[in-house]
Design brief:
Elements (H helix, E strand, L loop, with lengths): L16 H6 L26 H12 L3 E6 L4 H4 L4 E3 L1 H9 L6 E5 L2 H10 L5 E3 L15 H13 L6 E6 L4 H9 L3 E3 L4 H11 L2 E5 L2 H11 L7 E4 L10 H6 L2 E4 L11 H10 L4 E4 L5 H6 L2 E2 L2 H10 L5 E5 L2 H10 L4 E4 L15 H12 L11 H15 L3
Length: 394
């Protein structure tokens, strides 16, 4: 391995693992996990992939249960026993105690949640370990611990209740449970925040600043000034003790790389291009986009709204492109378009493709459990507390 002294780094750049990675001077095994698969990964051009996936799934029978997230590509979704958002899929996994293998066609944090909610004798498999989530990666355990230290130093930690979005690592869910908080989804973020304010004076919302801000301001009636933004890359989060004390909501500086790309100009452009269009966006979008839209809601809300929409109506959808394309195909009597003219798939979700699914299923048929996702027991115990608290929300 290259030593820091050999790197000739620019002045002022410390030889941290992140700096070395960004400069192309070092590799990061965690971000590159799953690049290689033991055995042969089928070629994407293999015309027998569909038949091989079907044969492997049939051979496994009820021993396997395949989960497919809404943002997955159609070639994978066709083999899912259940489709849904991250929490629905984790619940569905927990409701199948007889399934020996849970193959999760989603991303890493989702598979972690499934492992937390399923039995120890069940194996949760992620077909490609490199299928992560950029938002979840924006809040590491050490960073959140440092944030809590800053809240403690400001004298406010005792009154802060953490509310962590489902799109977070098991370690962050464990932190949340350990500090008496709850997990939330985009569907129940309002109820989670209301519960937290009943229990404490302030909310620490991790890791999606936009969902936290939109919920606090548009659903709870707080002001933008009631919210402060914690930046984990700045000393003390970039905030003063006075700002911590005055704030009602401490937002984490994180965002979804897909929903964060939409802006007010994309809404203006689509309204000019399609007269009478209804703009429907996910609450992970920026505050300015949500204000400019006609409707805002979770993935499930988006699906239900389009199911009930009048034939001939026009819709511009601000969410992941695989889902928008699928909805357009399912509703040919309506005009359904992606909010932005520039396409944007969830790139990490798209790492789960048909070759990786075939490889994982065939490995299971051969008696090998590939890419098993496991959460350390103590972390899982605290994370389960936070997940159970969400399930008990009024």
């Amino acid at each position: 391995m290259t030593s820091p002294a050999d790197l000739d780094l620019p002045e002022g750049v410390e030889a941290t693992p992140l700096a070395l990675l960004l400069l192309g001077r070092q590799s990061d095994p965690d971000s590159e996990r799953g690049v290689e698969c033991p055995g042969d990964l089928p070629a994407a051009s293999d015309p027998s992939l569909v038949a091989r996936a079907r044969a492997a799934k049939d051979a496994l029978g009820e021993r396997v249960f395949v989960l497919g997230h809404h943002y997955q590509r159609d070639e994978v979704i066709q083999f899912a026993d259940v489709t849904g958002d991250s929490f629905k899929l984790a619940q569905q996994a927990a409701a199948r105690p007889d399934a020996e293998f849970i193959v999760f066609c989603g991303v890493h944090f989702m598979a972690e949640s499934a492992d937390i909610l399923t039995g120890p004798e069940q194996a949760v498999v992620l077909p490609d370990l490199a299928a992560g989530c950029s938002m979840a990666d924006m809040a590491t355990f050490d960073q959140v611990e440092q944030c809590w230290d800053a809240l403690t130093d400001a004298g406010v930690a005792d009154g802060v209740i953490p509310v962590s979005y489902m799109n977070s690592s098991a370690a962050i869910k464990g932190f949340t449970g350990r500090h008496g908080g709850t997990i939330c989804t985009s569907s129940n973020a309002k109820r989670a925040m209301e519960w937290a304010f009943d229990k404490g004076e302030k909310v620490l919302f991790i890791p999606d600043q936009h969902l936290g801000r939109n919920t606090a301001v548009l659903e709870l009636g707080l002001s933008l000034d009631d919210c402060v933004l914690y930046n984990p890359h700045k000393p003390n989060g970039g905030l003063t003790a006075e700002q911590y004390r005055a704030a009602k909501v401490i937002l984490w500086k994180g965002h979804c790389s897909v929903h964060g790309r939409f802006n007010e100009a994309t809404v203006t452009e689509v309204r000019a291009r399609i007269p009478g269009v209804n703009v429907l966006v996910h609450p992970e979008c920026k505050h300015e986009v949500v204000l400019a839209a006609d409707l805002v809601g979770s993935t499930d809300f988006i699906i239900r709204t389009l199911d009930a929409a009048e034939p001939g109506s026009a819709w511009a959808i601000g969410t992941e492109l695989n889902l928008v394309k699928r909805l357009a195909k399912q509703h040919p009597d309506k005009q359904i378009v992606f909010l932005d003219k520039t396409v944007c798939f969830c790139s990490t979700m798209n790492r789960i493709d048909l070759p990786h699914l075939v490889w994982a299923l065939e490995q299971l048929v051969a008696g090998t459990v590939p890419n098993r996702i496991t959460v350390e027991p103590e972390t899982a115990r605290h994370a389960r507390q936070a997940l159970d608290q969400m399930l008990s929300l009024p």
